[in-house]
Design goal:
Radius of gyration: 17 Å
Number of strands: 8
Strand order of the largest sheet: 1-2-4-3-5-6-7-8
Structural class: alpha/beta
């Protein structure tokens, strides 16, 4: 584990392997451990970096008023701390929203973008009525006493969670900080990054679960249409957390793309 200080925050990240840098950015309600099937599997060819974003895992608590741009600046600090130049940057779900914001503010740090079951913010990717329903669900989730808090959101998997990863998912769920998850989801609800998509000038992979109910394939098609030259790879039978549901296919797609643009 490494640690970088950004302002008054400590931001933790894991690093393994040698080669071109590949930075993995997790979704809401989890931490760097969600990349367990990718971290060492891809380290034979890449310097793989997986962070705990502020408010998650081993990183500092979120300051009040922390904005989407603040997440992007912290991610930029991690890439600079790794010290290998521009990185191939992958973001899953909420992580994709953070990665897009990184590209908005620090495009010189991004060699390629890998958008995984992602959004251009909820407002930028989903119908208004769906955004309103999700916001209401977030508020209900946060309204319960701390001992009753459950960070699980519906529709993450195409079926049951993969049995081999259930202990990992349970462990990460126990570590979720309610205030952090609420901040992540409400920021994503307000984010609309559609203005940025046509201005992306780096190779972009869209990696999507065929059966994703959280960010359906219609969102992937909108990305494909808006981002110049974007490449869409659909993972058969996978849902929203495609890196855990079809890890071998996922890793093959990431490896092929990163090799081609490394």
């Amino acid at each position: 584990m490494a640690m970088v200080q950004v302002g008054g925050l400590q931001v933790a990240y894991d690093r393994a392997g040698q080669g071109p840098p590949l930075v993995l950015v997790h979704g809401a309600g989890v931490n760097a451990r969600m990349w367990q099937p990718q971290f060492y599997a891809l380290a034979d060819e890449f310097t793989v970096v997986a962070w705990d974003e502020p408010g998650a895992g081993r990183s500092s608590e979120l300051p009040e008023g922390f904005a989407l741009a603040d997440y992007a600046h912290c991610l930029a600090a991690v890439i600079e701390d790794v010290g290998l130049g521009p990185a191939q940057v992958a973001g899953l779900s909420w992580g994709g929203t953070v990665v897009l914001e990184l590209y908005r503010h620090r495009p010189e740090l991004v060699r390629t973008l890998l958008m995984v079951d992602a959004y251009a913010g909820w407002k930028g990717s989903l119908p208004p009525e769906e955004v309103a329903a999700r916001v209401e669900g977030v508020r209900r989730m946060l309204s319960v006493p701390p001992e009753e808090f459950d960070p699980t959101v519906p529709g993450l998997f195409a079926g049951e969670p993969p049995a081999e990863f259930v202990p990992l998912l349970d462990s990460m769920a126990r570590d979720v900080r309610p205030a952090s998850m609420g901040a992540q989801l409400l920021l994503m609800a307000e984010a609309d990054q559609r203005d940025l998509l046509p201005r992306i000038e780096v190779p972009t992979l869209l990696l999507w679960g065929e059966l994703d109910a959280r960010s359906p394939l219609s969102v992937a098609r909108a990305f494909e249409e808006a981002v110049p030259g974007a490449e869409l790879v659909v993972l058969p039978g996978a849902g929203h957390v495609s890196n855990l549901e079809t890890p071998e296919l996922f890793n093959q797609a990431v490896r092929a793309f990163c090799r081609a643009h490394g």
